[in-house]
């Protein structure tokens, strides 16, 4: 599935951030920056297309397969298009006993989608994920970089309205609980 | 009031910033170490302190450090394990979020002790907001001369940075963490060679948990002997416990090792008792991987000793009647919780997180998940319970890394202590989907163990 398409472009600010990250590792060990760069690219493009992954391979002077391998191993990377805002509800033990299933069912009803699906308007994707290190503040979900904790149905409704109005808010590096 | 060594200043306004941290005595351990101590002095203090790894295994830190190979001309590395993905565990996040400079100070001390000039913090990708807090703190530390070349004129150089994972529990295992930090899939490596000899980029490497590294700060400040005065026996110092589940005050607590489990669960200072006046049914005291304890083995051991928050007391009775301190992920279940459902939930987790390299782990975790799902939904048989017992037994000890054991133990413990609840799911399939079993009876346990 190697692509020779070169028409993908990383804006200068993203390139600068990638270069800063590469510099954190010794000469010849730039592959160590791969996971971070995939995060940076995914935050910018929304998901990791073959073109984006090939571009990163060239940037790091590694084979495209080395990028695909990593992108498919880690659960945070999406190699298929998703909604602009991923609602990732933790469903592991401590969250389960505090009502994670109730929250998931509520979101499913509210958005008219099932876990794993994306809304027709392309804004929301709903996912069930494993423990995110917020077990004492359960139930919780992650949206982009944000943690939303102590969830209730009302809180979820407000969040959905907020993100629908401003889908990019999930990458502003804020947290609110 | 418990003595606090890590979180003492956590409630000071602005303690996450360099200025406030410094004004409250921050970085004084680095001054002391770089001006008055040799690297070996620090290793010696850590040995004296009795500090044991806070990531889960509890291996003595000083001893681990003394195993680090030091071949001439080969750089060595210190890696901080901030992957924190064991269900029930959220203490490292709390420390890094609230008081990031404590970890940085610990990284400087530990790197100096090990002769490492390039150190990395590997943090789980979902903690990207914490990564940004750490990056800001690291930039402040560079700007104030605590990182970089020739720190405090000592001749010691240190570069420190943070790298994210991307959603893989297995990357908390130290060799998988190293693979991931090299930009690869997180497949654990066969040992030997051990990381102390061939770790990151085949160089000698030490991997330590966030809390372990932070604990080096008070050890250097007050001396290893002072640290060792806290606690009981081989469980010295303080420990961060992240408490969750059906309790009144979930959260992160710093306890002195040796506190009684009874006080931890029921006193207002900690968990504040069980929510809604319910009874306690079970407890997983050290993260999802450790054996679950039924209500009558939580505050007392099988020998009727008070159960204490120490490595030894929590393990008293071995796997038959004890558990482990593990990562300090303390999960409490009340009488309304279903053990079969919880066991199924954890099995799904391990199945999802298995890297797939070894067939007992890859196949076994999936199989356990399936059988448990069947039992939970009233479609299981008595043979299924025995089957589960066999599967978990065939995983344990037969895999490259300990994730296999971590998946097997919770299933074994659930069947060992809650067999009557599993059987009830088989004999009362309709009822089992509608209501929960409630408390397990002590009598059955006594009969089985007579
Ligand atoms: C599957 C698995 C997951 C682990 N996850 C973590 C983790 O998230 N954080 C951690 O510090 N140690 C984790 N460990 C333990 C590490 O392998 C290692 O023992 C630890 O980081 C050593 O540090 P310490 O001696 O300071 O505890 C894990 C081990 C296994 C087998
Ligand atoms: S035990 Fe499981 S997680 Fe560990 S190496 Fe084997 S397959 Fe991978
Ligand atoms: S179980 Fe949901 S955050 Fe830990």
Report on this structure.
The complex is a heterodimer of chains A (177) and B (450). With 177 residues, chain A is α+β, with helices and mostly antiparallel strands. Chain A has 7 helices and 4 strands; from the N terminus they run H-H-H-H-E-H-H-E-E-E-H. Chain A has a 4-stranded mixed beta sheet, with helices on one face. In chain A, helix 2 packs antiparallel against helix 3. With 450 residues, chain B is an alpha/beta fold. Chain B folds into 3 domains: 18-229, Rossmann fold, CATH 3.40.50; 232-334, Roll (Ubiquitin-like (UB roll)); 339-449, de novo design (two linked rop proteins). Chain B has helices at 18-23, 28-36, 39-49, 61-66, 91-98, 100-114, 128-143, 174-181, 210-222, 224-229, 261-266, 311-315, 318-321, 339-353, 359-376, 382-395, 403-427, 429-434, 442-448, and strands at residues 77-82, 118-123, 159-164, 205-209, 231-232, 235-236, 238-245, 251-256, 280-284, 293-294, 329-334. Chain B is globular and about 75 Å long. Classes of the chains: A alpha+beta (177), B alpha/beta (450). At the A-B interface, helix 2, helix 4 and helix 5 of A face helix 7, strand 3, strand 7, strand 11 and helix 14 of B. The structure holds flavin mononucleotide, iron/sulfur cluster and FE2/S2 (inorganic) cluster. Flavin mononucleotide binds at residues 53-57, 59, 81, 83-86, 169-170, 172-174, 207-209, 212, 401-403, 406 of chain B.
């Amino acid at each position: 599935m190697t692509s020779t398409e070169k028409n993908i472009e990383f804006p200068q600010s993203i390139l600068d951030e990638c270069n800063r990250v590469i510099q954190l590792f010794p000469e010849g060990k730039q592959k160590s920056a791969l996971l971070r760069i995939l995060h940076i690219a995914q935050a910018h493009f929304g998901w990791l297309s073959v073109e984006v992954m090939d571009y990163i391979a060239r940037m790091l002077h590694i084979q495209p397969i080395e990028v695909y391998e990593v992108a498919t191993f880690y659960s945070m990377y999406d190699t298929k298009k998703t909604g602009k805002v991923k609602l990732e509800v933790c469903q592991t033990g401590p969250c389960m006993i505090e009502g994670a299933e109730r929250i998931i069912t509520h979101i499913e009803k509210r958005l008219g989608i099932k876990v794993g699906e994306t809304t027709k308007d392309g804004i929301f994707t709903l996912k069930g994920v494993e423990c995110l290190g917020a077990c004492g503040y359960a139930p919780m979900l992650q949206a982009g970089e944000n943690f939303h904790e102590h969830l209730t149905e009302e809180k979820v409704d407000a969040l959905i309205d907020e993100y629908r109005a401003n889908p990019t808010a999930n990458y502003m590096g804020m947290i609110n609980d | 009031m418990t003595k606090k060594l890590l979180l003492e200043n956590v409630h000071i306004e602005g303690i996450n910033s360099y200025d406030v941290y410094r004004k409250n005595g921050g970085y004084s351990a680095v001054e002391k170490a770089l001006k008055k101590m040799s690297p070996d002095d620090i290793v010696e203090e850590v040995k004296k302190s009795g500090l044991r790894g806070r990531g889960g295994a509890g291996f003595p830190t000083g001893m681990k450090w003394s195993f680090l190979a030091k071949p001439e001309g080969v750089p060595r590395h210190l890696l901080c394990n901030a992957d924190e993905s064991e269900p029930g565990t959220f203490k490292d996040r709390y420390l890094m979020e609230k008081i990031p400079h404590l970890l940085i100070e610990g990284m400087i001390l530990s790197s100096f002790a090990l002769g490492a000039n390039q150190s990395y913090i590997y943090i789980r990708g979902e903690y990207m907001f914490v990564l940004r807090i750490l990056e800001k703190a690291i930039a402040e530390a560079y700007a104030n001369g605590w990182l970089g070349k020739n720190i405090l004129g000592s001749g010691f150089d240190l570069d420190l940075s943070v790298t994210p994972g991307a959603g893989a529990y297995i990357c908390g295992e130290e060799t998988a963490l190293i693979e991931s930090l090299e930009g690869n899939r997180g497949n654990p490596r066969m040992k030997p060679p051990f990381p102390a000899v061939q770790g990151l980029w085949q160089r000698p490497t030490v991997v330590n948990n966030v809390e372990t590294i932070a604990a080096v700060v008070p050890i250097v400040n007050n001396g290893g002997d002072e640290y060792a005065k806290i606690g009981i026996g081989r469980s010295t110092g303080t420990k961060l416990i992240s408490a969750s589940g059906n309790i009144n005050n979930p959260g992160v607590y710093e306890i002195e090792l040796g506190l009684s489990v009874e006080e931890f669960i029921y006193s207002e200072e900690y968990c504040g008792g069980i929510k809604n006046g319910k009874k306690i049914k079970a407890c997983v005291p050290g993260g999802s991987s450790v054996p679950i304890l039924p209500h009558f083995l939580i505050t007392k051991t099988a020998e009727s000793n008070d159960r204490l928050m120490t490595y030894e007391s929590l393990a008293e009775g071995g796997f038959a009647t004890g558990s482990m301190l593990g990562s300090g992920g303390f999960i409490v279940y009340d009488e309304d919780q279903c053990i079969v459902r919880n066991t199924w939930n954890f099995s799904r987790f391990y199945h999802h997180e298995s890297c797939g390299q070894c067939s007992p782990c890859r196949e076994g975790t999936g199989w356990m998940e399936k059988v448990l799902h069947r039992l939970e939904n009233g479609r299981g048989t008595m043979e299924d319970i025995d089957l589960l017992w066999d599967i978990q037994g065939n995983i344990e000890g037969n895999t490259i890394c300990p994730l296999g054991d971590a998946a097997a133990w919770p299933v074994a413990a659930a069947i060992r202590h809650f067999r009557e609840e599993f059987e009830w799911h088989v004999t009362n399939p309709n009822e089992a989907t509608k209501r929960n079993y409630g408390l397990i009876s002590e009598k059955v346990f006594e009969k089985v163990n007579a």
